[in-house]
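FORM 7B: Structural annotation worksheet

SECTION A. Query
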Amino acid sequence: MKLFRKKSTIVLLLFIGSIKSQTFKIEHPIADMLDSLSSQKMFENAFSKPVFPKNNKYKYTIDSIPILDDYAYQSRLAKLDVLSPFDLVYNEHVKTFINLYMYRKRESLSRMMGVSQLYYPMFEEVLDKYNIPLELKHLAVIESALIPYARSGAGATGLWQFMYPTGKMFGLKVDSYIDERCNPYKATVAAAEYLKSLYSMFNDWQMVLAAYNAGPGTISKAIRRSGGKKTYWEIRPYLPLETQSYVPAFIAANYAMNYADDHNIYAALPRKTYFEVDTVVVKEQMSFDQISQALDISNEEILYFNPQYRKNIIPSGGNALCLPKKKIAYFLNNEIDIYAAIHAQKKESIVVEPIVQSKINHVLKYGEKLSDLARRYGVRIQDIKSWNYIGKRGLKPGKRLVIYVREQNNVTPKLEVIKSNNVDTSVKLQAKKNTSKIYYYHKVKKGETLSRIAKKYNVKTSNLMILNRMKSNGLGSRKYLKIKQINK
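SECTION B. Predicted structure
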């Protein structure tokens, strides 16, 4: 094994240059998808830099790029092959794609490793349910680079790159508002069903991969043209050029996702992992703007977790909203108020005063059940499960559970919209008792800053931050800003 540093040698640059000029004289669809990974909006602020381990196995420095020989590739693939039903061979075709991942697209591989923490646990769960080899989770790497709303030039869409007819065949709904080919879970189920049906046709996983790319009809034609051969490498010369690269790319993806650290490549830290998100069924139509305002979350992050909605609208009819667990918890605790605000918003702009929640860390005692905690804290069992990863083995004494308790006031607010000539919108919160509060709200316009708004209403910036529970003076995606309280 040889080791070079980026800033101290020309040899490495010449080596990578030779890969670019000789191996990929024309761009390949897989390389194009990896290139698109760096420009996707879903990654804006979604990742921090990879955590570089100080005590890494080979004592690499942070800017080192190791160059391995053929024997290293071959021996490592042999280890993977022993545990796999796939024929994970090593040859020049496979080497081409290993070099693509390990030298040309190192940053893209780091990001895919990061986002795999969101998708791979779900992939494995579904593949295991259908009794399909778990290695097929890497198929999404070469199909979409793990971009949930990826779209090819031919129109294939989503993590698993379904064409419209194939997606419909396996139950994926596509209409003006929803494209379930981009729904990570539903598309994974459809992919598992499709892969299983292909295996029943060819009884060979390498042939299944080729058929997934080119279609079973193309594979059947290649078998006839080859004189009845039944393995991928035997019929490969009779396949389309893209399909000839498909299985080598899959083998290389298996290598890359298992041995990246040997090449001094580490996962970028994702915004959220699989165990940190949850879903809730939305009972009424909601726009991303409304969700953003209600839950204090950006539209970009909503899209990141819900790529199936085509117009940034979740239509009515029992569709799911996926978000970080804390946001789902807040939604569940304030569901009635959120829907009420949306109804009122249809008639007139309205802002609802957020309901305050307290976070409680409860250490589970021996004999305690979720039903006991639900009664004690006045929450639902389903809520506790959504806030915490319970796991298949259930709860054990000593486990720390997070519980969000809704703070109860002495009075019950009742919403009443009022008019004002001084500001865009205001909301009056009338209590059942004789006390009442009126707040003025300012509708935030594009380009406005907190200091400019404070100056307009002759108030201090610090007071606005306190009144609106702001941690910084950035307005972010806020649509309205509470200005001041006016006594009745």
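SECTION C. Observations
The chain has four domains: 2-263, 272-338, 356-407, 414-486. Confidence is low (pLDDT under 50) at residues 1-26, 41-47, 348-355, 408-436.

SECTION D. Sign-off
Analyst initials: ____
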